[in-house]
Design a protein that fits this description.
Structural class of chain B: alpha/beta
Radius of gyration of chain A: 18 Å
Radius of gyration of chain B: 25 Å
Oligomer: heterodimer
Structural class of chain A: mainly beta
Number of strands of chain B: 16
Distance between the termini of chain A: 54 Å
Strand order of the largest sheet of chain A: 4-3-13-12-9-10
Number of helices of chain A: 0
Distance between the termini of chain B: 43 Å
Number of strands of chain A: 13
Helix content of chain A: under 10%
Shape of chain B: flat
Chain lengths: 167, 492
């Protein structure tokens, strides 16, 4: 028997969800984003300077994100909106770019953190009300207010850095 | 034995037919084509073929030789249905108590039957009672004309309107004169009360008249009112409809209709029910239905679960394209038609008793159905789930995200069911708590609008002890359609 930590209802072993209160019952699956201490989350100064490529890409078709911390690069077409966050099936979060394996949870990335969309020739970044915020080239974004994103920009989600380029 | 002849096709069967099904199909055909029944030359030849097919397939030894030979020559039938089964775990611990085990089943059609649109035998049954007056009837008429425009030459269409009694405005026929049909629709006026049984009877009668061997027989019922005193009759007709391979879609408009009754009529016939909150959406719902019906790939699907020793099935749900609880009837779960190329998804929740270490088969899931586009009946496919039980440490294994995602939404669906039950028993405090907890879960998964409706109703119960009819329907039909799984996890 296992006991639901929220409502104390009892269920047989290996039950995944409590159908009394809807809680997820698997242990070790604490996937809530912890707010990092307020003073902690600012634009993090780094030694290297930004390499802003001068050339404007006309009507970008695909997006490349490089994650220096993990050395991972992700490339996605810009035909639909690109959601960035952490995969958590229990709360139906299925982002297009899952930052779990890049240390997303520890670095304060929310399950639904930000999204990138293309409108015409311009690409926008929008913070989705994330707990620890999204920064674009040192500036913290106002939640739900899309900002223009350019090739060569640097994003910081919580404390995780992403480099943006378009093809 | 002539190996180049497809004896299965001659008997209208799938290669996976059982001996019993072969015998039944043969008897049925013989009665129809027997020379004594006044058959002509062509039919007599066909009768000889049927006889030849049965001589081979009716004899297990000859059938096996025929199958093997066909296989070698590359003439064998390709399967039309594909079944994929995903278990929650590959390895289970040996416990001294029962444990829960989930299997996600996906039923898809094979690529070879895609693109073939089946023939429709469709009847539209519209409520014309006084309450439909105005925008409701106007939009219903527009939606009816929309359907008429989308019919193909060979589809059969009929139209019934009802109030206290039913009137067949367009009798079932093929090669419909669309301009004439639309002018008939435009003359519908409103009067009288609502007696659903009258409309159902007239509509089912039209469909029965026009059925063809491989047509998709379907009735769409649109109503905005309560029916009085004929509920039992309606349910009997729904049951009869299923036996005659007619499925029913029930659509409730506005808030003053009996959701339990419409749900049950649809469920018993193997169809679906839906809630339309505003007349402007009628056309949208009709469009979805006609699109789904036009893509029926398999019908009369049934699921049989053959369980390992002492394994128990607790619940079976359809989780996509919408959530419904499935009921077992005479040992099988009727699944109705398979309407989408994307396939339908089901979830089986099982209780596993203590097992000794080793490999054990827990369940064999078998799906049987007819494939109208290929003229095959009783196509059969199955999957077995075998699990390794171990005394030792369990390897690190993740429950597949498709299963977790489906269960998360099912949990919300079940909370909604329980809240409605609490309320019926007069347990208003429990119902309020449950709706509030449900709202939290809904916010977590980003269903803000539904969460708001749940909170609003929770507040209403706390004050008045009752749900608003509108809120009840919103929550019930809203949680049901939570099922659409995200694209990313639909198929590997």
């Amino acid at each position: 028997m296992i006991k639901c930590p929220v409502c104390q209802a009892e269920h047989p072993e290996n039950t995944l969800f409590c159908d009394e209160c809807g809680s997820y019952l698997q242990e070790g699956n604490q996937k809530e984003t912890d707010p990092l201490a307020a003073a902690e989350v600012t634009w993090m100064e780094r030694e290297e300077t930004l390499e802003v490529s001068g050339e404007e890409v006309v009507s970008p078709v695909s997006l490349k994100l490089s994650i220096p911390d993990s050395g991972r690069e992700v490339e996605l077409p810009l035909t639909k909106e690109v959601n960035i966050g952490r995969l958590d099936p229990a709360s139906a979060s299925f982002p297009d770019i899952d930052l779990t394996s890049d240390g997303g949870l520890e670095k304060g990335v929310s399950r639904r953190h930000a999204k990138i969309t293309r409108r015409g020739n311009e690409v926008f970044i929008e913070d989705l009300g994330s707990i620890n915020g999204t920064f674009l080239n040192r500036k913290k974004l106002t939640p739900y207010l899309p900002q223009v994103l350019k090739s060569g920009d640097e994003l910081q989600l919580g404390k995780l850095i992403l480099r943006v380029s378009f093809q | 034995m002539q190996v180049e002849k497809d004896y299965y096709a001659i008997l209208g069967l799938s290669k996976t037919a059982t001996a019993e099904e072969i015998k039944k199909a043969y008897r049925h055909l013989v009665r129809r084509y027997h020379p004594d029944a006044g058959a002509d030359e062509k039919e007599a030849a066909h009768f000889r073929e049927i006889q030849e097919a049965y001589d081979v397939l009716g004899d297990p030894e000859q059938r096996e030789a025929y199958d093997r030979w066909r296989e070698m020559e590359g003439l064998g039938q390709k399967p039309a249905l594909i079944l994929k089964a995903t278990p929650s775990y590959q390895t289970l611990p040996c416990l001294s108590e029962e444990q829960v085990f989930y299997v996600l089943l996906e039923i898809m059609s094979s690529p070879e039957i895609k693109g073939k649109r089946p023939l429709l035998n469709l009847c539209l049954v519209l409520d014309r009672s006084t309450s439909m007056q105005g925008e409701r009837l106007q939009k219903a008429k527009e939606a009816a004309m929309y359907i008429i425009d989308r019919l193909s030459e060979d589809d059969t269409f009929s139209l019934v309107v009802f109030s206290d009694r039913a009137e067949t405005l367009l009798s079932g026929r093929r090669r419909l004169n669309k301009a004439m049909a639309k002018s008939v629709v435009s003359t519908i006026g409103s009067w009288g009360g609502t007696e659903i049984l009258q409309g159902l009877l007239a509509g089912l009668n039209e469909i029965e008249k026009c059925r063809l061997p491989n047509s998709i027989n379907h009735l769409i019922l649109l109503t905005d009112g309560q029916t009085y005193g004929d509920e039992v009759g309606c349910l009997e007709q729904a049951e009869l409809a299923r036996q005659r391979q007619i499925s029913i879609t029930t659509l409730g408009l506005g808030t003053d209709w009996n959701d339990e009754l419409l749900d049950q009529i649809a469920a018993r016939s193997g169809g679906t029910s839906a809630y339309i909150d505003s007349p402007a959406k009628i056309i949208e719902v009709f469009r979805d239905r006609i699109h789904s019906l036009g893509s029926v790939l398999a019908r009369e699907l049934t699921l049989t679960l053959r369980l390992g020793k002492e394994v128990k099935v607790r619940e079976v749900f359809r989780v996509s394209p919408y959530i419904t609880r499935l009921e077992e009837r005479e040992g099988v779960f009727p699944l109705g038609p398979l309407e989408s190329h994307k396939g339908d998804v089901f979830l089986i929740d099982m209780l596993i008793p203590p097992h000794p270490a080793g490999q054990h088969r827990l369940v064999r899931a078998e799906v049987v159905g007819d494939i109208p586009a290929l003229g095959r009946q009783k196509e059969r496919t199955w999957q077995e789930i075998t699990v390794n039980f171990t005394e030792g440490p369990i390897p690190d294994q993740q429950v597949p995200s498709a299963i977790v995602g489906a269960l998360g939404k099912l949990a919300i669906f079940k909370m909604q069911e329980k809240a409605l039950n609490d309320l019926q028993r007069g347990e208003t405090d429990l119902a309020t708590q449950r709706l509030e907890a449900m709202a939290t879960r809904l916010i977590n998964i980003g269903e803000i609008e539904l969460a708001r409706a749940a909170l609003l109703e929770a507040g209403r119960i706390a004050k008045t002890g009752q749900l608003s009819p509108e809120g009840k329907k919103k929550i019930k039909y809203g949680t049901r359609s939570l099922s659409i799984l995200p694209r990313e996890v639909r198929h590997d």
